[in-house]
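User: Fold both of these, please.

Assistant: Here is the first one.
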Amino acid sequence: MTSKTIARLAPPQAAKTPLSRRQKAAIVVRFLLNEGADLQLSDLPEDLQSSLTKQMGSMRYVDRDTLRDVVAEFAAELESMGLTFPRGVAGALSALDGRISPQTAQRLRKEAGVRQFGDPWEQVRLAPADALLEMLAGESTEVAAVLLSKLDVARAADLLGRLPGEAARRITFAMSQTAAVTPDAVDRIGLSLAAQLHEVPDIAFRDGPEKRVGAILNYSPAAKRDEVLTGLDAEDEAFAARVRRAIFTFSNIPERVSDLDVPTITREIEQATLVTALSAAAGEQDTQVAAEFILSNMSRRMSDALREEMAERDAPKKKDGEAAMTEVVNTIRRLEANGGITLLLPEDEDAA
């Protein structure tokens, strides 16, 4: 039987039924996937993802003319589109990130009940160990078991080793009961844990109080600095100790600066200022060691030249000497901030 005979015997072609928007969407998605497009369908709301999946599952065949018409209509809609806006308040906050004040963004999140986590489990994996230990101690053993299961093996082992023996035993036993946990339950647990990480109150100051006080005292005259620290000792000895660790003065140079970094530092300071600072430091008991440390860790020629200038000049006035030493300290801090040098940790912090 020839094709002409088949065509003559076939019933007349019925008029095409108009396609719904869901059917057209399924056709476009199928076409784009066939062409190798990387579609981020996970960005769609869950109900649309479900509808699209069911629609694609119910369709079997589309002829070439229909495909051409649907794709042409889709392309025409794209070309006529002027702007697209982010979906919901969360999307709008993402688009405006950094362009509205943090306070306004925080208020809008609270009012709309949204939080921006991205992948909640990724937030949890990147959390500090102390925060994860607090979660493990505060959550039920079942949630703790899921949390450990979602971490990489090395980190989970490290956290488990820090837990009390009884708690570690209960959590590891609970891990044996996680075989039936559904993906939805894991997602909800991850979102809850991520929410805990983000429920940190906003603070006005980035640095702690000891660092702020220490930074101020770094620029204060030595007499005033000693007076303030003596007063702090009387009020709060522990806080005074933390402030002392945060302070970096000329006398701290030998314990905080690597001898290899001394030439880098001295190259950044005018020789007249350096001579004044070293002369003043050499005349004070608490800064003599720092002056000798600097002179001993530069080239022999440079060191000899500075020593000669120091010997030939009169002792600088106290105010000038302190200003020169402050300039040396500021240079060190500037180099550290720029990555030119790395300050050593105080011995007590290093040991901790």
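And the second sequence with its predicted structure:
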Amino acid sequence: MRTNSVAVVTGASQGIGRATALRLARDFSSVVLAARNEEELKSTAAAVSAIGAESLVCALDLREPQSAETLVKNTLDRFGRIDALLNIAGAVPQINLFEMTDAQWEDGIALKLHGARRLTVLAWNALKASKGSVVLISGSAALDPKPGFAAVAAVNAAIIALAKAFAEQGIKDGVQVNSVIPGAVMTGRRQSFFEKWAPAHNLTVEEAVKKFPEEVGIARFGRPEEIADLMAFLVSPQAKWMTGASVRMDGGEIKGI
């Protein structure tokens, strides 16, 4: 049942972000869509409208400090409130630990970590007023770091810690904060990776897509819509007593307790 409420979704142009925006359009009256690619955001906005929710497109780069302020201002100017903030934007380079430059490290941190931190801080008063919810997206590399995924692991681990710190303040302020740790999800970005990786390893794309889940010990890749359903639950009334949690959804990829 759709409520008169406003959700802000970053990274809403594709992948998990787009799937989450579409899923939340079933529950929220308005969905604010943020990402860098305006044309892709307009496509998401059209799909949100088709579901029956109002949308606002904010094409901006959250690596830039002023972008978070602009996003919060535009949202409040248009809708007057923020009930849920879903920090999904941010792709971190998958480059070997010993080959990464400082600029590559900083770029990954700037969007996924600092972008989410800055936006959550600036949206906090509105979330406090609405007794709202925040979700930050991490990733399974945080729990199983490898040399080729060092920056991914470091940023994702920091996201989990950041969410817990926000959650502690949220207990006092009435703001619910959790993080989600997805495993290997088949997004457009992952498909593009396999299209480049497969020929270099004498595999077809289909063979590579089949081989990867077998190597990490899962039955299949996840779907963006599955993560979106989890996001929707975490910002729903049914999950209101759930805060400070790091929720893993990875098909059994992480074997540790």
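The CA atoms of residues 38 and 256 lie 40 Å apart.
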